[in-house]
Amino acid sequence: MRKQQELEIIFRGRLGMENFTHFNIEFGRLIRARRRMFGMTQKDVAQKIGVTFQQLQKYETGETALSVYRLYKISRVLELSFAKYIDDALAQGKRRDLAKK
Questions:
Q1: Of 29, 66, 76, 100, which one is least surrounded by beta carbons within 10 A?
Q2: Is 3-100 CATH 1.10.260.40?
Q3: pTM of the prediction?
């Protein structure tokens, strides 16, 4: 298994699928907001990260999960620190786990 796939499996396992989906949606909203803040089109960002504008649109809506590599590429183009969002998502997942007990 490729390293990227291993990281994504670990990440999904720690977050749980419900939280992982929530993370995709929230991070997608952030991508859209930052792109607009910089006055960039979906096509502009898509070209810089090596995907089609349709694929970027799926990232922005949370329809498609971002790979670690794409998270990195997007964060460079849009000057984001995605580590904060991962930490927040993990913390939220832990709070939900504790609330269930």
A1: 100
A2: yes
A3: 0.66
